[in-house]
Amino acid sequence: MxxxxxxxxxxxxxxxxxxxxxxxxxxxxELTFERVTRFVVEYSCHRNLDPHAQDNFLSAL
Length: 61
Description:
This protein is mostly helical. The protein contains four helices and no strands. The chain has one domain (3-60).
């Protein structure tokens, strides 16, 4: 993995962690496919990301 890709992954993880804090969720319990997908869909809707971007986002988590 190159440095740019690693930076993107780290940013996405930080966004997920911030989401958990904001919604008072226990981070470990949210690390299921279903719950991470819920986060990605919600995040994507607020930022108008296309489905391909959602798939890429999921791969980081």
